Amino acid sequence: MTEIDTLTIHRPDDWHVHLRDGQMMEAVLPYTAQQFGRAIVMPNLVPPVMTAKAGAEYRDRINKALPSGSTFEPLMTAYLTDNTDPADLEAGFKDGIFTAAKLYPAGATTNSDSGVTNFANIHAVLDKMEELTMPLLVHGEVTDPSIDIFDREHVFIKRVMEPTLDRYQGLKVVFEHITTSAAVDFVRSQGPRVGATITVHHLMINRTDIFKGGIHPHLYCLPIAKREQHRLALREAATSGEAQFFLGTDTAPHAVNAKESACGCAGIFSALSAVELYAQVFDEEQALDQFEAFASLNGPAFYGLDPNADKVTLKREAWQVPDAIEVADGSTVQPFLAGETLNWKLV
Ligand code: DOR
Ligand code: ZN
User: Fold this and answer.
1) What is the per-residue pLDDT for 113?
2) Is residue 259 part of a domain?
3) Which residue, by CA, sits nearest to atom 2 of ligand 1?
4) Which of 89, 181, 216, 272 has the fewest Cβ atoms surrounding its Cβ within 10 A?
């Protein structure tokens, strides 16, 4: 078989990104905007993006921070709480401010304290979203402290996903950043109204990597990486080309001193080389022919959008991931696989 050395595809989109705000946003946004046509922007700021007004203001700040000439389009999400007003959510959706709404179980991850404490509190919101066919994006982990951290996604499927999808037969749901073979099977069993994003780090690392020769805080994220068998199931799903699986980096920058700490923050900053890292995975799986579906076609189709009109080219070329990027406040952020050599490069 002849080796493929260049790959031209419709410009990819990132269906799950943390752009942050202020100086951190200014530091990380150019990497996402350079590679992707659009991105679903997560709302877990402090305070979170809870209203259509806050969503419009955050979108303005992102657009102002974009490099000049950029055509990148941020797609905004609303942060659901026990008190979300269905009328405000509806207005935000109809005005084109919100593309979707994000559900964080309260306490599940970074800045999720104002999240939903009980699904019973948001029935009116979910009824409205079902009626609007507004996608619900779910951080799928239970917060029950008695459940082992490695089992939280699996238990969420049984306790929350299944009953919610049963009750709302028309609700469109994205199971975000899936990490287990159980989630892969579950998504497949639900058919086209359920999609799933898969991060590149969950395709590349397993839970043993986090502890190899010592603890690696820059490989800590939520949901935490699972056993090797799960990583392999995710690789199989991503490279299958199946319409339900699409690219979502969950790139989540934190300053190095917040990661390398007695209580380090969860989040992996992969935006610097996201498309190249995914291409590497597809190449390793001899599935480059499925890369465009996963990166550029399946996501827009799920969201009812056209693929990006323009194209990007990737070339087989060795390059080294930088050790750090600088933020204007003097802090630095360490990219995923800092210092390592990658073998695909966006032209
Ligand atoms: O690792 C993570 N970091 N997982 C999340 O769900 C949130 C994110 C963040 O915002 O830092
Ligand atoms: Zn996230």
Assistant:
1) 86
2) yes
3) 267
4) 216
